[in-house]
Amino acid sequence: GRELIGYVPWQFDMPSRGKGYERAWRYLLDPDFFRAPFGPTTVERHDPLFLLQPHCCWWSGQSWPYATTQTLKALANVLQFRAPGLGDEGPGLTEEVTAADYVDLLAAYARTHRKHGRPYLAEACHPDTGSFEGHDAYNHSEHYFHSGFADLVITGLVGLVPRPDDTLEIRPLFPAAWDHLRLDRLVYRGREVAVVWDRDGTRHGLGPGLHLLAEGRVIASAPRVGRLTAPLPPPSEALAAEGLVDDGLRPGIVPTRENVAVNNDGGYFPRVVPSSVAPGTSPARLQDGVAWFLRSPPNRWESAEAGAEATLVVDLGTPRRVDTIALHLLDDDPALLAGTADAAVPGRDAAPSDVRAPGEVALEAWDGSAWEPLAAAIESSAGPGRIAGHMATRLRFAPRELARLRVTLRPRAGSRVGLSELEAWGEALVPLEPVAPPAGNLAFRPAGPDAPEFPRASASHTSRYDRVERANDGVISYQVNPNNRWTAYESPDATDWLEIDFGAPRAFRRVELALYDDRGGVQPPERFHVEVWRGGAWEAVAGERHQPERPLGNVVNEARFDPVTASRVRVVFTHAGQSRSGVSEIMVWDD
């Protein structure tokens, strides 16, 4: 049988022209094969294994939004570069599909982005009904945003063709019968451009027809919908003043707006260290680039104590140019959750939550020796000076180079505070130069075939799903897959240990553990303690104290103790109940 992935080669304009391969596109439009109201299907209906399952995850006929994105991208390539009218000259032109077919499939895709009449998308849906039932199970894909919808509108429907030169080109696929269309405020090659279609000229005041604009001025027009090009003017002085054009630091690379606080690579920097952490939440969630405000599944950090002021230190590891801090504040007021998925599922996180948007927010910068107040204008969609939950509250200030800053959240009476995401925005050249971790981590052993023999990690038990050498590879990641962790999952013992062998005596006084927690078979230990190898036996270190006092998962836990010199150190975990302990990274310091 035929599968939808057969169209992927056209996504990259790979199939040879003149071979007749474009005949494959006739099956996409045929309801006896792939076409469906909320499709296309991933397998043709003639396939003997075609099957619509009421649960995830089957590639046997369901409509998969990401696969639809690929198919639409491929279809746009065929129409824009191989079809009569818009395509390049040469063999292989096709009339199997038309621009109207693209618009029709994009409309079906738009209809798929719904559940009970509200914007929504998950991993797969029923191609005939659009139902996501059984395919958005709890903690699986209810926030599985596999959509490339914006790109399909910009490069497909409107037809913007990315080019390496300063030419603005479009090969539009929208129908000339439409009264009007406008794509506006698109920054392209350092210019702000727009595409306008006004069939009779009464809508946008530019006259009838198709218009290309750059820096607010019309640079090309045509009476009909079709391919249109125009040379781009020099970048405006306004954009140059904002740093949106090439400054010569990296030829051909222009600064862009960048969130320099995000960290999905598991590096030591940038790092967010809160004054407290409520169990079941994680400061790592503040840097994953994802902001949502529901309680299930959680993507949040919460403070631990009601009524207590909370601080978050953001350490970028190196000075970055920053002008805006965006705080995606939580607020679990039932009135705000009304009508959301949290409210719709009986029994899910039914216990009341005391997390509310804070009453005050303050910002400070580190000057090298002390914290100094940083004056900032506060704004949100609720209005200037307003602090609000379920949206971004932005603190704006004059651009400056910052390596460390501190956010203070002062709660309302009797409540705690929380965030889904903390962002630090400024102009930057991307990709950002990576920041090396601080020197002195005695446990670090780089991954790869050229890695030194020591320091070496070992453990009393290592899960068949994990690798102990990942515990000291310098990467902190709490992702389920791909994983970067050691765990004692399936260990038959109530206690297990993780050891670092330095290969020679080393002096140290602090251990950091990025404890892993999947909220299932691997959870934070009931307790742990540090031991060193001396005189042919293990002995506990003296003066051991922990922060936080009780182990927390998906958080860096610290153990300090009296200075010691030893060639081997291990952490002994007492597991919590039937769960087992796990670590994404162990770090050993002498500071």
Could you outline the blueprint of secondary structure elements for this entry?
Blueprint: H1 8-11, H2 65-81, H3 99-112, E1 114-115, E2 118-119, H4 149-157, E3 167-170, E4 180-188, E5 191-198, E6 209-214, E7 217-222, E8 228-231, H5 237-241, E9 256-259, E10 271-274, E11 301-302, E12 310-329, H6 334-337, H7 341-344, E13 360-366, E14 371-373, E15 377-380, E16 383-384, E17 391-410, E18 418-428, E19 456-459, E20 486-487, E21 495-515, E22 527-534, E23 537-540, E24 545-547, E25 555-574, E26 582-589
Antiparallel strand pairs: 1-2, 3-8, 4-5, 5-6, 6-7, 9-18, 10-12, 11-18, 12-17, 12-18, 13-14, 13-17, 15-16, 15-17, 19-21, 20-26, 21-25, 21-26, 22-23, 22-25, 24-25
Helix pairs in contact: 2-3, 2-4, 3-4
What would a concise description of this structure say?
The chain has 591 residues and is mostly beta strands. It has 7 helices and 26 strands. Strand 4 (180-188) and strand 5 form a beta hairpin.
